[in-house]
Every structure is written in structure tokens, then in C-alpha cells.
Specification:
Strand order of the largest sheet: 1-2
Distance between the termini: 78 Å
Number of helices: 6
CATH topology of the largest domain: Arc Repressor Mutant, subunit A
CATH architecture of the largest domain: Orthogonal Bundle
Strand content: 5-15%
Number of strands: 2
Number of domains: 2
CATH class of the largest domain: Mainly Alpha
Structural class: mainly alpha
Radius of gyration: 23 Å
Helix content: 40-55%
């Protein structure tokens, strides 16, 4: 009598469930570690809301976050802060980094990207390619 071999079938849902469970465990651990700082995080959100209201960005009364950002905002910021990274722009406007990166990508003809930092393209001022960025401009932003 021949033994029958049980075939175990791969179920991708099992893998997904395992990964979600691992992520949930990590999130719970982070929440546990952040618990002592809850009050600080609340104060931070209040300060960010006040900052948005003063700058005229995002909701002024709800305290919610807003990813509403305009190209002109980014242009103005990079003109006064050349060589800023998308994370710096996002922090300044209290928006997500993907929001800033999306604007930069959609309007890439208006910006120069050098090593993940951005300048406003200005051919009249001799700033048209990454090679036009002087090394001291580059180094000054790293300080």
C-alpha cells in the first residue's frame, strides 16, 4: 500500500496576514515607547497648527493637517532657501514629504535637483543645470 503524500498549498493571504501582524506588533511597541511623550506630541501638534494659521497654510481652526501646497509656495521657499531638501520644505509648510516631492517632480523643469536638494532654475542668473551650482553654495547648505 502506497503512502499518500499531502500537498501543502501556498496561500498568499497567510503571508500577508503574517506581515500585517508583524507590522501591528511593531506599531504597538512604538506606541508603548512614545506613551511617555504623549503630552509633548500634543503640544507639538498645537504649535504646528498655530504656525499654519499664522502662515496662512492649512486649516486655521480645526487643527487638522492639510497637504494643500502650491507651486508658488515652493518656488518662494527655494528662492530664499536654495539647496533645501524636500523634507525641509515639507517641514516648513507642515505637509508630507511626498506632497512636496510630487510638486517637484511634476514641475521638474523649474527646478534643479543636485544630490536630492533643490534650487529654482534661473537661466538669466546663470543657474540652469546642476553644474551651475557653485561648490560653496553646495557646501554652505550642508552646514
Amino acid at each position: 500500500m502506497a503512502a499518500t503524500k499531502k500537498v501543502v498549498r501556498f496561500d498568499p493571504q497567510d503571508l500577508l496576514d503574517e506581515q500585517v501582524a508583524l507590522i501591528d506588533e511593531q506599531l504597538e511597541e512604538i506606541d508603548r515607547r512614545l506613551a511617555p511623550y504623549k503630552k509633548h506630541l500634543e503640544v507639538k501638534q498645537q504649535l504646528l497648527s498655530a504656525r499654519r494659521a499664522l502662515l496662512g497654510h492649512g486649516p486655521r481652526t480645526t487643527g487638522g493637517t492639510s497637504d494643500r501646497l502650491h507651486l508658488e509656495d515652493i518656488l518662494d521657499y527655494l528662492k530664499t532657501n536654495p539647496g533645501a531638501a524636500p523634507s525641509q520644505v515639507a517641514e516648513h509648510f507642515s505637509v508630507s514629504q511626498p506632497t512636496v516631492s510630487s510638486h517637484l517632480y511634476r514641475n521638474k523643469g523649474r527646478f534643479i535637483n543636485k544630490d536630492g536638494r533643490y534650487w529654482v532654475r534661473d537661466p538669466k542668473e546663470g543657474l540652469d543645470t546642476a553644474e551651475d551650482i557653485e561648490e560653496d553654495d553646495d557646501a554652505a547648505e550642508e552646514d
